[in-house]
Amino acid sequence: MGPRSVTLSAHDGLALHAEDWRPPADMPRRTPVLCLSGITRNGSDFRGLAERQSQRRRVVTFDYAGHGASARAEDPERYRPEAMIRDVLDMMAALHLHRAVVVGTSFGGLVSMALAVLRPGALAGVVLNDIGPEIGSDGHAWVLDFNRRDPAAATLEDCAALLRAHLPALPHLDDAGWLDLAGRTYAKGPDGRFHPRWDTKVIDQAVGAEVGPVPDLWALFGALGGLPLLLVWGEVSRLLLAPTVARMRTAHPGMRLLTLPGTGHAPTLTEPAAIAAIDAFIETIP
């Protein structure tokens, strides 16, 4: 059974989209899963995870403002991190997600850290996908540069070629995998060309250095201290570097770690090892 598509009204009236996957009615009630994507990604990145986990428990995937099927804002400041975190909190309240296992890729992992501070009782466990309390400066610059661009590509195959040429190593993807990733990254517009599934104005507001001082992310990470935690790390990631991973393990000795050799930022979570590790981790939470 597929998901229920949900449209929510944000505090300012902006339409936000989520997909609500429900397990069979005869399944025992278990802690649901909330999936939060990277800053230029959307809920479709978790389709495989949702299909698997919804056999046993509820799964909700969410499109931030300006992403996926959610509406785009006229004012770029609507994409400030604090506004998007508020949207997540409001969405959780509207969908009665009072406590969940959060799977957060990149920016979604940072949001999960913020939730641990703002509403700690809402978290039953966290999967961080290639993100930590320190972000490599080289990787940060790459995110800014690549994700500001609208390729206006003629075909989805062109989009796949663009991703292969510019994204970090994702060795598990074959030709079909790259084409699938392209389809979740770009969509055909009214002009017949393919454009990003995110508002390119998001980037400077959400991760640009010009929006103000960066908070102490180690303090946010510390708020995860009492929670079950799994870190999925692309070993050649330019955003999450080895010294940061080592310090994270010291700060949270109970943290599970899955290292994906030869993989950059961010793992797609379709890697066989990632599927196995995430499913096993979630299974430990009733």
For the structure shown, list the relevant keywords.
8-stranded mixed sheet, about 290 residues, 10 helices, single chain, globular, Rossmann fold, alpha/beta, two-stranded antiparallel sheet
How would you sum up this structure, described in words?
This protein has 286 residues and is of the alpha/beta class. 34% of the residues lie in helices and 18% in strands. The protein has one domain (4-137, 213-283): Alpha/Beta hydrolase fold, catalytic domain (Rossmann fold, 3-Layer(aba) Sandwich). Strand 3 (33-36), helix 1 and strand 4 (59-63) form a beta-alpha-beta unit. Helix 5 packs across helix 6. The model has no long low-confidence stretch (mean pLDDT 93).
Briefly note the CATH topology name. Answer: Rossmann fold
User: From N to C, what is the helix and strand string?
Assistant: EEEHEHEHEHHHEEHHEHEH
Contiguous low-pLDDT stretches (5 residues minimum) are: none
Shape: globular
Oligomerization state of this entry? single chain
Give the C-level CATH assignment. Alpha Beta
Beta-strand percentage range: 15-25%
CATH architecture: 3-Layer(aba) Sandwich
Major sheet, described briefly? 8 strands, mixed
> At the fourth CATH level, what is the homologous superfamily?
Alpha/Beta hydrolase fold, catalytic domain
The overall strand count is 10
Structural class: alpha/beta
Strand arrangement within the widest β-sheet reads: 1-2-4-3-5-6-9-10
Total domain modules:
1
Radius of gyration based on Cα positions:
18 Å
* Relative helix content: 25-40%
If you average the pLDDT, what whole number results?
93
Protein name: Alpha/beta hydrolase
GO molecular function: hydrolase activity
Organism: Plastoroseomonas hellenica
InterPro entries: AB_hydrolase_1 (IPR000073), AB_hydrolase_fold (IPR029058), AB_hydrolase_sf (IPR050266)
